[in-house]
Amino acid sequence: MKVSRIANFLSLSREHPWELAPFSEPLATGGTVSVWDTGVVCFEPASPGNKDIVISCGIHGNETAPIELCDQLLRDLVEGRLSCRHRLLLIFGHPAAMNQGVRELEVNLNRLFSGAHERGDSPGLEQQRAARLELYVGRFFGQRSGAERLHYDLHTAIRPSKYEKFAIYPYTHGQPYSRRQLAFLRDCEVDTILLAHGPTTTFSYFSAHRFGAHAFTVELGKVMPFGQNDMRRFKAVDHCLRQLVSEADWMPAPLEPGQIRVFKVCREIIKQSDAFRFHFGKDVANFTAFEPGELLAEDGEHRWRVDAQREAVVFPNPAVANGQRAALMVIDYPLSGSELD
Ligand SMILES: O=C(O)CCC(=O)N[C@@H](CCC(=O)O)C(=O)O
Ligand SMILES: [Zn+2]
């Protein structure tokens, strides 16, 4: 059997972290697999099913478990151990940050989408990468209409989480939430959902808002160095993504009440200055709850206190740049049937 050049695509992308000349190969199971750029590879089956699927990982270079999961998925697809039944765009987001084992080089790539990469006078390498990833997602979804558009942007979190696997559901501008997608995430053992409360500049919001995709930021566990992940913890999501990609009409069993817990983002704490600090320990886990009136953070004259309802903190990070999100605060939010479709 002809050896695939694309099987080692992750290594090839890390050797060429900013640019890679396109090339294609036939798919062992029929169709073509094409490298579009470093970290961007498109699977076009001979007779594609009705889903256009984007799976992205490594938007933050130190979030290695999803990168290792997608690397093996890629190898099994190009070497014929797994069939590709739908169009699939696989993205390894930030090879340069992977090479340094860091979240970002100069700016957070996941705050540069929906055109945010054009702000400021001189676009750096990460801004250029965000612009290209936008272009590739647009090219991929733009090649046909009528297919079901999906984008799972796979991450891991800096801190431990009270709920290990959770997903951010990008703001839907009043559109209903998808029962089937929540059921899919449940099958992935992603049993906690955060409903965003407004537009953001994240990759998943870009795909959702610009292309109407069912798109999610999926937090699968804890940040670990390459090779130190316990991949058994990712078996469910790996199995579900493989079923999704390789079966024509796979769908999860219906969502039942009580199978997922839902929070709604009630506010973002935006760091204003270097004086910013939290009023809780640096090891506080995601989803730690605070009672009404508790002081959360201060920044010069500014104080953030919990309002009338218990709030939980997610993604607390005092090291973000000034003007960036230092934490999300969320409240319990029992989704009603009328908000689901
Ligand atoms: O653990 C952390 O502090 C951040 C983990 C991470 O990268 N989360 C994403 C969430 C994106 C979203 O809100 O949809 C991020 O911060 O980019
Ligand atoms: Zn991340």
Automatic annotation (TrEMBL):
Pathway the protein contributes to: Amino-acid degradation; L-arginine degradation via AST pathway; L-glutamate and succinate from L-arginine: step 5/5
Amino-acid positions noted as binding Zn(2+) in the UniProt annotation, renumbered to this chain: H60, E63, H155
Reaction(s) catalysed (UniProt annotation): N-succinyl-L-glutamate + H2O = L-glutamate + succinate
This protein's record includes keyword Cell inner membrane: no
CC cofactor note: Binds 1 zinc ion per subunit.
Cofactor: Zn(2+)
EC main group: hydrolase
Domain Succinylglutamate desuccinylase/Aspartoacylase catalytic: from-to ranges: 51-239
Entry keywords, A to Z: Arginine metabolism, Hydrolase, Metal-binding, Zinc
Limits of the AstE/AspA barrel-sandwich hybrid domain: 259-331
Domain of life (superkingdom): Bacteria
Annotated Pfam families: AstE_AspA_cat, AstE_AspA_hybrid
Active-site residues from the entry: E219
InterPro entries the UniProt entry points to: AspA/AstE_fam (IPR050178), AstE_AspA_cat (IPR055438), Aste_AspA_hybrid_dom (IPR007036), SuccinylGlu_desuccinylase (IPR016681)
Entry annotated with the keyword Zinc: yes
EC identifiers of the protein: 3.5.1.96
HAMAP family from the UniProt entry: Arg_catab_AstE
Family to which this protein belongs: Belongs to the AspA/AstE family. Succinylglutamate desuccinylase subfamily.
Function: Transforms N(2)-succinylglutamate into succinate and glutamate.
Protein name stated in the entry: Succinylglutamate desuccinylase
Species assigned in the record: Zobellella aerophila
